[in-house]
UniProtKB/TrEMBL annotation:
PANTHER family membership: NAD(P)H-DEPENDENT FMN-CONTAINING OXIDOREDUCTASE YWQN-RELATED
Name of the protein described by the UniProt record: Flavodoxin
Keywords: Flavoprotein, FMN
Record InterPro entries: Flavoprotein-like_sf, FMN_Rdtase-like_dom, ISF_SsuE-like
Ranges of residues in domain NADPH-dependent FMN reductase-like: 5-102
Transmembrane segments: none
Keyword Flavoprotein belongs to the record: yes
Superkingdom: Bacteria
Lineage, top ranks: Bacteria, Bacillati, Actinomycetota, Actinomycetes, Kitasatosporales
GO molecular function: oxidoreductase activity
Length: 207
């Protein structure tokens, strides 16, 4: 299966710092790697409704939910590009991940088995000098990948508040050049014993 990257944009504004950083990283992908970009603001998902004890989920046949589901199933690599909002992912991004819960219970999808072995990545921009404050966001993505049996490539972190600020973060731009070339280990929960040489939770870059 040839590599296909799905970039899920979770910012509340267009062309934000997170998207700018994600596009810088995507520029380094080989030309034969297919890319699909979906802006969750342009394709708003409805609130997730938990039906597991009431009725069966059915596969969506149209609208944003079907678009995101089909794109997710087709991707070898899913990139969550969400700015740091209150120390975690944005509301739009969380809603997308919540819909994974429904897809796990949709007959005929085998969503978990299909996604196992694929790779989850993160890109985020924050208006804070200490990267450790992004720990909850990193944990959300790492643990989601671990539950799904996916690899986790970590989080590309940049600094920026005003539009375009991240383009002044030379360290982040340097990391973006090689971010997707990194080896992505199998995601593990923090309480699991990592294999020799593996980080306990891959994610936060050193600055």
């Amino acid at each position: 299966m040839s590599r296909r990257f799905l970039f899920v944009l979770g910012s509340a504004r267009p062309d934000g710092n997170t998207e700018l950083l994600a596009r810088r990283a995507a520029e380094q992908l080989p030309p034969d790697v297919e890319q699909q970009w979906i802006d969750l603001t342009a394709h708003p998902l409805p609130d997730f409704e938990d039906l597991r004890h009431d009725s069966d989920h059915v596969r969506p046949t149209g609208g944003p939910v079907a678009l995101l589901l089909d794109a997710t199933l087709a991707a070898t690599d899913v990139v969550i590009a969400s700015p740091l909002y209150w120390y975690s992912v944005s509301a739009q991004t969380k809603r997308y991940l919540d819909h994974w819960s429904g897809w796990l219970r949709t007959p005929g999808l085998d969503f978990k088995a299909t996604m196992a072995g694929r790779t989850l990545w993160g890109v985020t921009a924050l208006a804070h000098e200490e990267p450790d404050v992004a720990g909850p966001l990193v944990g959300t993505l790492n643990n989601s990948a671990a539950y799904m049996g996916m690899s986790f490539g970590g989080v590309l972190l940049g600094n920026g508040s005003r539009p375009g600020d991240v383009l002044k973060d030379t360290d982040a731009l340097a990391r973006a050049k090689t971010f997707f070339a990194r080896q992505a280990p199998l995601a593990r929960f923090p309480y699991e014993t990592p294999r020799r040489g593996e980080p306990r939770v891959a994610g936060l870059p050193t600055r």
